[in-house]
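Dear colleague,

Following up on yesterday's call, I've attached the two folding results inline so they're easy to grep. Please treat them as preliminary; we haven't cross-checked anything against experimental data yet. The first protein's sequence and C-alpha cells come first.
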Amino acid sequence: MTADSAHLTSIRDHIQKAVDEGTWPSAQFAVARHGEILAFESFGAATDSDRFCLFSATKPIVASVVWQLLGEELITLDTKVAEVWPEFGAHGKDIVTLEHVLLHTCGFPNAAIDSEALADRGTRTAAMAQWQLEWEPGTRYEYHGVSAHWVLAELIERLTGQDYREALRVRVLDPLGLDRLELGVPKERQGDLQRVVVTGEYQPEALEAIVKRPIDVTVMEAYDAWVREFANDPNLVALGVPGANAVSDAAGVALFYQELLHNTRGLWRPDVLADATGRIRNTFPTDASGSGAPANRSIGLILAGPDDGATVELPTDGTPVQLRPYGGCTSPRAFGHPGAGGQSTWADPETGLSFCLLTSGMDRDLVRDFRRHTAIESLVPEWA
C-alpha cells in the first residue's frame, strides 16, 4: 500500500467533493489492519483532534459489554429480561428474551421515554416497565432505534453492579486504550465535538422507489430533528444514550473493530465473539427496504451476507441502487453497523481491514448519500 495510490486519492476526492458542495461540513475516515491505523484523515471544518457522534454505530459498542456477560455466563441469549428485571415483564413483556433485544425482534420499536425521565435511573426504568408490545416478540424484525439498547443498559447495570457507561469504560474501552471513544461526555469535555447539521434536499420519489411505500416529508423532518438532538444537545451527550450517541474519532472506531477481528486482549470468550461477528440469527425482511432483503443481523451487528446482486431501479432515472452494505465489495463475512447521518463502521475478516467514516452533515437526499458511501467504501478493499 502506498499513501499516493489511485484508490486512496479517489477516496479523498469523494469525501472532499461532499465537503466542497456543503453536504458534509466536516468528515473523517480511518482504515486499519493488523491492529494498526493505515490511514486517518480529516476534512472540512474538522481536525484530527475532533470527534463525531456515532449515532447507531454506538450499538455494537454497547453490545460488546453484553457479549462479555454472555461469556461469563451471567446471562444467556434465552434469558428472559424479566428474570433479571422482574418489573419489565409488565404488559406481556415477560416473554422478551435477551436474544430478542439484540436482534431487534423484541416488539417495541417505537417505545420511548420522556426526555425529563432519562437522566434518573429509577424514573427511566419505571417508564420502561410500562412499555407495551406492538407485536409478538420473535415474529418479525423492525429496527429499534433507541428502545432496545436502553434495555441492554439496564441489564448491564443489574448484572455488573456498575453504571452502564462505567461498565463500558472499565470492561472494554480502557483495556483497549480507546480514550477517544466515549459514551457519556461531560459538558466540559464536549469542546471537540463536531455539531451535526442537515443538508441537501429531500427526494421522496427516489426513496419511495426503494422502500416501496409513501414517504411523508413532515415525518422525515421530525425524525431529522429528533436525531440531531442526540448529537447536539449537551445534556443528552453528557447522559450517553446507549445505541445513539457515543462519540469518537474515526481512528478509535477502526481500532475497536480490529479488536473484534483479533481479540488480542482476550476481552471476549472466543465462541461468543464468533457468534456476534459471524452468525446471522435474524433473516427477517429488513424494514428499511422494500426489496425483501434479509436483515442479516447477529447479536449486535449487521453482516454483509452473500452478494445476491440485489438492486432497486429508480423510476426517476432508471439507474440501479446497490443494496448490499459496506460498499458492496467486502466479503459476505464483513460485519459492522451504520449510523444516522452517514456514519459507517465495518470490518472484514477476509481482508483484515476495518473502516470508519464519520460526518457532521446529514444529507436529506438519502439515495444520493447511500450512493456516495458505496462509491467511497467500495474503494477501500481495492486500495488496502
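Below is the second protein, in the same order (sequence, then structure):
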Amino acid sequence: MSETDTLARRFEEHRPHLRAVAYRMLGSLSESEDAVQEAWLKLSRSDVSAVENLGGWLTTVVGRVCLDMLRSRTTRREEPLYDGEGLVRLPDPVVTGLTGIDPEYEVLVADSVGMALLVVLETLAPAERLAFVLHDLFAVPFDEIAPVLGRTATSTRQLASRARRRVQGAAPTPDADLVRTREVVDAFLAASRGGDLEALLDLLDPDVVARSDGGTLRPGLVRRGATAVASQAMAFARFAAAAHPVLVNGVPGVLSMAEGGPLSVLAFTVTDGRIVAIDILADPERLARIDLDAVLGG
C-alpha cells in the first residue's frame, strides 16, 4: 500500500468525526462535505510525518476551513438566521427513518445536537461558534483552538464562555424520553388535523416558538406563543395529505407529504412534556435532497 493510500485510509477513519464538527459549525450538510473535502486536500499536500495526533490536527484544520466559510457568509451579508418577521434560514435537518439512525449519520446527531441547539449556534459570531463547538462539544483544548483564531488561549476561553452563556440562555434542553416525545408529537398531529384548539394549547408551551424556512421562493415565518402556533398548525394540517413519523436529528419528528413529494420536515423540541419549539423546513430545494426510499422504507 502506497503512502498516499495509507494516508487516505487514515483520513477515512476520521471522516465521520470531521463531518460532525463541520455540521455543528456550519449547519449545512452540503457545506460540511465541502469542508471535509477541503481538509483532505490540505492533508494530501502537507507533511504530517511529525504529527502525533492526526485526528486532532484534522479537527483544527476543519475548524479553520469552517471559520473561513462562516466569515465569508457574513461578508456576503447572508444572514444565517433572522429570528423575526423576514428571512428565516434554518440549519439542515438530518432526516432518518424510525428503524434506527444510519451509521453514516450517527456521529452527526450524537450528543443531542437537535435543531433548537443548531438554531442558537447560527446566531453566534464565527469566532464564538468555533471556540464553543471545538471546546464544549469536542473537548479540544483552548491552546489548540487559539492559533486557529489568532488569539491567546485566555481570549479564546472568554469567547467560549460568552458563547456558552448564550447557548444556555436560549437553547431549551429537550426531554431525554424519546417515547414520550413521540407521544407528544403524535398528539400534536392528531389535534392539528382535528382542529382541536384546546388540545393543542395543552401540548404547547405558552412561550413556544415556531420557525418556518421556505427557501428563496416562499417567505420564512416566525410565530411565537401557543395561540399563534396552534392556529398555524391547524391551517397547515389542511395542506399535508400525509404525515410520516421520522427522526429529525435523532428526535421524533414528522415528514409531511403532498402529491407524492415532501412538503415539509417538522422538528420538535419537547421540554417537560410540552412543545417549546417547532422548526419547519419547507424549502423545496433542500427537501428534494431527502432520500425518501431510505427514510420511509422504500
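For the second protein, one point worth flagging: The chain has a mean pLDDT of 88.

Best wishes,
A.L.
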